[in-house]
Amino acid sequence: MSAIVIVEGGTNSGPAVREAFARLYVALGLKGRMPRTRAAGSRNEAFKDFEDALAKGEAVLLLVDSEHAPTGGPWEHVKQHDKWQRPNRAEDEHLQFMVRSTEAWLLRDHAALRSHFGPKIQTGGLPSAPERLAPQETASALSHAVRATPKAGYDKGRDTFPILGKLDPARLETEPWAKRFLDRLRGL
User: Fold this and answer.
1) Which H or E run contains 139?
2) Spans of the chain, pLDDT less than 50
């Protein structure tokens, strides 16, 4: 049985989500033992899907935006901010965060951004620690950096998953929560 990574968001672009994560898994060296990725919709829908998969005994991880700077362990964080209770079979390793949003991961890899948006992207002003910024701040920084490119702005639905599929895991690992997720994937 292969592991499942349940991801918040992406229900309108399920194939793009699966392809982007598959490329990330290959870049991570997981070819031949890659987990399946399921785009679940809202945070609460993702959590419900996670609970259901866990209850069925599936090997499953839940990957969501933390939205806020994580405080304490992952389950304490979502209990405080989302009112989620840790399911009986869940361990800390089952809950993984994109801190604070997907865009924070994208901002970690300027080469992936340049590959997607072209040479006119202005990476010089991008934040060096995007995981410390609120989600709207990372999206705004990204939009500002790409304003002179042919795409003329960042569109979450259009741009997120094509960029995510180009990310270099080594660049992501500079952020502790991303490293935690990648290490967990390697251990599956």
Assistant:
1) helix 135-145
2) none
